[in-house]
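Q: What would this chain look like folded?
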Amino acid sequence: MSREVLVVGSKVKNYMREKEVKTSGDLVEALSEKVYAMLDEAVTRAKENKRSTVRPCDL
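A: My prediction, written as structure tokens:
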């Protein structure tokens, strides 16, 4: 099951170009999966602290 990509591919590629490296075709999807994982962990932490608001400190 494919999930929606959460990052802007063109922005990622531009950033990497500025760093003078190339990007593989599947980098954006892999980065998006990392973002999903980070957000899932942040949600868990917020709920463990009895909050319904995810804050930067939850990351």
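Residues 25-59 form one domain.
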